[in-house]
Amino acid sequence: MSLLEIALKLLLAVALGGIVGLERESSHKPAGFRTNVLICVGATMMMILSVLILHEQKADGDSLSRIAAGVITGIGFIGAGTIIQARGSVLGLTTAATLWAVAGLGLVIGAGYYWIAIVFASLILLTLIIFGYVERQYFKKAPYRYRIKTQQTKDILANIKKLASHEGLKFQQLTIKKEEDFSIIDLSFQATEEKEQKYNQSLFDLADVLEIKIE
Fold it and tell me: For position 181, which CATH number holds?
């Protein structure tokens, strides 16, 4: 295998892994652009290494399959780190599955099956974008009304808006009322249960938030 071929494989891994990563980044997922690129490139490099070992040391085909299996197993641990359990619900499964698929994509590229890799990447994107849209249409969003009691700090409203933007939430109504020692923020939005739970937890992590009432 020539140096040029190795470089082309790695560049293709950057391109295809980056496309998947951009979709994840635009959806505000924890494993975004750089994570997907690194996993795809890393898996590609591991497959390239296994092919080089196979040819140079005249190893058997089992060595090739063992390295590939090791990559997939290792990605399983990374994927497990993206899964969060909150209020009895498991979140992050799609992100973990995407990382696993991108690792497989890297192995396909490293093995030299370029057209298969392009088709595989297209199917990953189709699942994330098109099927994601269909899923959102079937899982209707519920309305939520929050009354948040906070300390009077200049950044609290900006932080609340920033957290909402990170989860892809749009406020339908937002008012702030200043009391003597604290502020009351009323807001409403529509969201899936998963997004509402993540936003709720993010609000509780803010040091200035004293109390949250949900209607």
Answer: 3.30.70.260
Tokens of 80: 């497990």
Q: Can you give the pTM of this predicted structure?
A: 0.61
Segment 85-108 mean pLDDT:
76
Task: Tell whether 182 and 83 lie within a shared domain.
Answer: no
Separation of CA 6 from chain center: 28
Domain shared by 21 and 68, yes or no: yes
Look at residues 13, 23, 33 and name the one whose alpha carbon lies nearest to residue 130. 23
Domain span including residue 190? 142-214
User: Based on the structure, what is the number of domains in the chain?
Assistant: 2
Tens of pLDDT, residue by residue over 28-76, are: 777 788 888 999 999 999 888 888 877 776 655 566 667 777 777 777 7
> What are the CA-CA distances from residue 23 to residues 17, 105, 121, 129, 214 (Å)?
10, 16, 12, 8, 32
> Under 8 Å CB-to-CB from 155, ≥6 apart: which residues?
208
What is the helix, strand, coil percentage profile of the chain, to 5? Answer: 65, 20, 20
51-82 burial code (b ≥16 CB/10 A, e <16): beebeeeeeeeeebeebbeebeeebeeebeeb
Interior CA angle at 167 toward 191 and 185, to 5°?
Answer: 75
In the predicted model, what is the mean pLDDT of residues 98-109? 90
Q: What is the DSSP letter of 87?
A: T
pLDDT band at 138 (very low <50, low <70, confident <90, very high): low
